[in-house]
Amino acid sequence: MWRKSSNSGKGYISIWQGKDYTIFIGMLCAILSFVLTMSLTVQAKASENGQEQDTEELLRNYQDYQTRFFAVERREDIEANYFEIIEEQIFPVTLESFGMEELTLIPAMDRTWNRLALFFLNETEQVVYRYDQLETNYRIQGELRQATKDLVGISFADVNRDGLKDIILISRCENPSGTYAGIPYKVGDVIFQGEGYLYRDWRISDKINRFNMNKSTNQILFYVRDGVSTEFLYTSTTLDELLDHGFSVIEDQCYTRQFERLGRLQVVPGTFRMAWYDFFLIYLINEQGQIVWCLQPMVDYDGLYSLKGINGRDVDGDGMKDLVILARYSREDEFGETQIENMCTIYYQRTSGFEIDTKFETYYHYTEEDTMEDMIQKIREFWGWQVEE
C-alpha cells in the first residue's frame, strides 16, 4: 500500500514577509519593468515575417506604440488609438490607494502587436491610470509583437494581505512559430497595488506560469495568497517526497517493467488537486524509491478528466519498451465552456530516456471507442509492423 500523505506543510510556502517587503518589491519591479521596456530599443528581431529588422525600425515601432498608449486620455481614445476593447471583461473596481472612487477597468488589445493594456477610467470616462507591464506581454523575449490572443479571466482580491485590492488576470496565448505553433495556452498575471501605483512581481509570475498554476484565477489565488504550490511535482527527487506533499497515486495503473536502458522501474501515475483541477503526471521510480523520469502527458490541458490506461511495450520496433497513455482531459474553449478531449500520448524509449511522439497524432486521432489494444495495433501499423491477428 502507498503511504498516506500527511499534508505536513512542505507543499505550502510563505510568500509575504510584511509591508516593507511589498514596498521594496514594488520599487524593484518598477525598475525591472523600465529596463525590460527600454531593452526593446536595442533589439533587432521583431518583424512580422520573422526576418531581422534594424534597430531604427524597431525603435520607431515601439515609439509609435508608446505614443498611442499614452495618447489614451478618455474612453473614446482607446479605439481611436487602435486598441480593441474587450467588452466582456470590463469591470468596476475600487483601488484603495487611488482613492475610494469607483473606477472602470477596461482591458484592450493592441492588435498591431498583440499586446494587452489596462485602462482605468473614472465616472467621467477619463483615464486616471494605465498599465501594460504584464507577463503576457513578455512571452516572446526581445520582441514587440507578442502571442496574446485574448483575455479570458479577471478577478480581484487582496492577494498579499496588505489591505489593498490586487488584480488577477488569465490570458490566452498562441505562438506564431516554433514547435508548439498554433497551440493555445494560458498565461497568468498578478498585478499588485502599491501606494498609488500598480506593479508585477516577475518572480511570482515566473512560478505561476512555469509550474502551470495558470488554469484559473482561483488557482493563482491558491498559490499566491495561500501558498499552495505545484512546484514539488517538478522538483521532487523521491516518491516519498511526492506523497508527503499530497500526490495521490492511481494505484490500479501502477506496475513494474524492465526498461532496457533504464533498468527495472515502477510506473507510478497520479494526480495533485488544486482549485478543482487535477494535475496528472507519471513518474518512473527505481528500486530505491528515486524518481528516474517524469512524464507530463497533460501538457497544456486544464486537468485530467479520466484515465483509460497506461501500457508499457515496444510499439515502434526498436526493441525497447515504450509507454502509451490513453486519457481524457478538460480544456476551456474561447467562449469559456469546458470541453473534454481524448488524447493518446506515446513516449518512445531512447538511449538517453523518453521522447514524446509528434507524428502518430497526425496519422490517427484517438476516440473514446478505441481500446488500448486497438491503439497499440494502430501505432505498430504506423511504424510498419505486421498487424497482429
Write a brief caption for the model:
This protein has 389 residues and is α+β, with helices and mostly antiparallel strands. The chain is built from 9 helices and 18 strands.
Please compute the radius of gyration using only Cα atoms: 24 Å
Helix content: 10-25%
Structural class: alpha+beta
Largest sheet: 5 strands, antiparallel
State the shape: elongated
Elements, N to C (H/E): HHHEEEEEEEEEHHHHEEEEEEEEEHH
- What percentage of amino acids are in beta strands? 25-35%
Q: How far apart, in Å, are the first and last alpha carbons?
A: 38 Å
pLDDT under 50 segments (min length 5)?
1-14, 16-25, 32-51
> What's the tally of helices?
9
How many individual β-strands? 18
Q: What does the average pLDDT come to?
A: 87
Question: Your description of this structure?
Answer:
The protein is an alpha+beta fold and 389 residues long. 22% of the residues lie in helices and 33% in strands. The protein is built from nine helices and 18 strands. Strands 1, 2, 3, 4 and 5 form a five-stranded antiparallel beta sheet that branches. It is elongated, with a radius of gyration of 24 Å. The chain starts with 18 loop residues before the first helix and ends in a 7-residue tail after the last helix. Mean pLDDT is 87; it is low at 1-14, 16-25 and 32-51.
Please tag this protein with its features:
5-stranded antiparallel β-sheet, 389 residues, single chain, disordered N terminus, alpha+beta, 22% helix
